[in-house]
Amino acid sequence: MSFAEKLVAWQRRGGRHDLPWQGTRDPYRIWLSEVMLQQTQVAAVIPYYEKFLSRFPAVGDLAAASQEEVLALWSGLGYYARGRNLHAAAQEVVRRGAFPSTPEDIEKLPGIGRSTAAAIAVFAFGKREAILDGNAKRVLARYFAVSEEKELWKLSERLVPARGVRAYTQALMDLGATVCTRRPDCARCPVRRDCIARRDDRVHELPAPRPKKLLPLRRAHWMVFRFDDQVLLERRPSPGIWGGLWCFPEKKGDGRRLDVIEHGFTHYRLKIQPVLRELAKKTPAGKSERWMSLAEAAAAAVPTPVRRLIARLR
């Protein structure tokens, strides 16, 4: 049996079959799942995916929504540029009149890279395309003992079968997600006998990890202006990590210092000092500011540290 045939046979008995985006050919649903799964675990994605489809059952519904509404549903999933790009791409699809069907055209949509475009083309349109997401990269890097991304793309393209590409692609994703993980269970792997990394005891070396670097620390001061049951939030400008989201005004001021909040990003760590100032009179909100009740703020498009602080205030 070929590499692809072994994976497909394994997927039938050991792969994942009950994920909510499986069994559909709807490019909107497949695209939504692929974007949400970028750098995010399946277990975290499922409730967001179901919530999005409940509110936006079709791409036109997503396109017609405001960015604020989209980001409010995305709140807590992280990497918020994905939510902004998802909204922009939905509007582009509506302008085009249909979801693009080739990987080249799919990749032109905001927020979609080569592997994501290929996965959508495979699952939605049955195209014979190669993927190289994190899971596929881990499997191929170990099986062939190769780390260079350019070479891995060549291998991935060569291995795509002439038929059964959907089953093979799903199998490659499933194997990397459930067996060939950072701590692999090689005894369950259907291609372990020919895996070079396993043979040479190099499983934990491949794919080559990125050099660890000490993330720089950044500090911020949040002023938490509170009047009765309301707090003042400001909408962050786009672009930016929290662009389009509601946050507490970032500035220094007098008041009661609250517990420090720490939050990690890909490229730096953020240490936030919130300062609470209770107001006897509500001050006018600025152009990009809004007074919200704590309940309203908890349901708004806010990043995780803001949500945590609102929960404390409630």
**Distance between the amino and carboxyl termini:** 60 Å
How many structural domains are formed by the residues? 2
Gross CATH architecture of the largest domain: Orthogonal Bundle
Structure class: alpha+beta
The CATH class of the largest domain is Mainly Alpha
| Structure summary, number of beta strands | 7
Largest sheet: 7 strands, mixed
Mean pLDDT: 95
CATH superfamily of the largest domain: Hypothetical protein, domain 2
Radius of gyration: 23 Å
Distinct helical segment count = 14
Strand content: 5-15%
**Unreliable runs:** none
Shape estimate? globular
List descriptors.
314 residues; alpha+beta; Endonuclease III, domain 1; Nucleoside Triphosphate Pyrophosphohydrolase; 2 domains; seven-stranded mixed sheet; globular
Describe this structure in words.
- The protein is of the alpha+beta class and 314 residues long.
- It has 2 domains: 3-205, Endonuclease III, domain 1; 217-313, Alpha-Beta Complex (Nucleoside Triphosphate Pyrophosphohydrolase), CATH 3.90.79.
- Helix content is 44%, strand content 13%.
- Strand 5 (261-264) and strand 6 (269-278) form a beta hairpin.
- Helix 9 packs across helix 10 (149-159) and helix 9 (134-144) crosses helix 11.
- The longest helix has 16 residues, at 81-96.
- It starts with a helix and ends with a helix.
- The model has no long low-confidence stretch (mean pLDDT 95).
